[in-house]
Amino acid sequence: MAGAPRSTSYYDRNLRQGPALIRARRPYLVKNAVTGLALLGVVSGVYMWTINAVGQDNFEDVKVPDAPHPASGTTQKMKSRHYAPDAVARGSTFDAAGRGPALAAPAEP
């Protein structure tokens, strides 16, 4: 009569690696560690080079836009129709129900 059936899993009852799995993974252990360290070195090198390159830039070639001009009376009248009155006084950009940015009214002909 046959004994208990052999386990077909590479893990034991406590979900630890079995001897067969350890033997199968042993040849790849060093290769995987070396590959991981090499990849970590390349990624770290690119990161450090990028931080160094950006740190040396003084951004003189970037054009900064002028400050926005104050709104005219017509714009304020259009805003008062689409915003809550107290929100216009506070300079809020939310609609009367407080649901996010309100859309500007179409220009009147």
UniProtKB/TrEMBL annotation:
Primary location class: mitochondrion
Record-annotated membrane-spanning stretches: 29-49
Keyword annotations of the record: Membrane, Mitochondrion, Mitochondrion inner membrane, Transmembrane, Transmembrane helix
Cytochrome c oxidase assembly factor 3 mitochondrial coiled-coil domain mapped to chain residues: 21-61
One Gene Ontology CC term in the entry: mitochondrial inner membrane
InterPro entries the UniProt entry points to: Coa3 (IPR041752), Coa3_CC (IPR018628)
Any single biological process term in GO: mitochondrial respiratory chain complex IV assembly
Pfam families, A to Z: Coa3_cc
UniProt-annotated location(s): Mitochondrion membrane
Biased composition (Low complexity): 96-109
Membrane protein topology class: Single-pass membrane protein
Chain intervals for the UniProt region annotation (Disordered): 89-109
Family that this chain belongs to: Belongs to the COA3 family.
Function according to Swiss-Prot or TrEMBL: Required for assembly of cytochrome c oxidase (complex IV).
Subunit structure: Component of 250-400 kDa complexes called cytochrome oxidase assembly intermediates or COA complexes.
Name of the protein: Cytochrome c oxidase assembly factor 3
Species the sequence originates in: Parascedosporium putredinis
Biological classification of the source: Eukaryota, Fungi, Dikarya, Ascomycota, Pezizomycotina
